[in-house]
Design brief:
The chain is mainly α. It has six helices and two strands; from the N terminus they run ααααααββ. It has a two-stranded antiparallel ribbon. α2 (18-52) runs antiparallel to α3.
Length: 145
């Protein structure tokens, strides 16, 4: 049997070295954390909207919860694309540095420190969008005040 035939018959993961395995495990752990974050949003968004909205608006909770989750997932996709393109042009380190600087600037901004007014029980006032400064793969994010 030739070497090429033996190479083709082996599973793909047999050819990975230790560094590649570490990279694969770290990326899988990152995806697991992202999935957990979305799962936590799914578990809590209904309860949070129930507390924030007037009882007359409780019928809108499924649509608003779907909107919040949809915007989050859309933000992951758009942010991943924009962050990936930016990283290809200026490098991953510079992209991460720009993200960290943007997050620091947004956190120091007094308007971002104060929560949006939720006392009026307005669903639009209960949603707060975060920008690409959070993580490059999250272009926009919805959070409940």
């Amino acid at each position: 049997m030739s070497m090429a035939a033996m190479t083709r018959s082996r599973p793909w993961y047999r050819g990975l070295d230790a560094n590649q395995w570490k990279t694969m495990i770290a990326s899988n752990i990152g995806w697991m954390f992202d999935g957990y974050e979305t799962y936590a949003l799914i578990l809590t968004v209904g309860v949070a909207l129930h507390q924030l909205l007037d009882p007359s608006q409780h019928g809108q909770i499924p649509a608003l919860a779907g909107t919040v989750i949809g915007i989050t997932l859309l933000g992951w996709g758009v942010g991943g694309f924009v962050g990936g393109v930016l990283a290809d042009y200026i490098g991953r380190r510079r992209t991460s540095a720009a993200r960290d600087q943007g997050k620091a600037a947004a956190d120091l901004n007094p308007a971002s420190i104060r929560p949006l007014p939720c006392g009026d029980r307005n669903a639009a006032g209960a949603l707060r969008l975060h920008g690409i400064h959070q993580r490059p793969e999250f272009l926009s994010r919805c959070e409940i005040c």
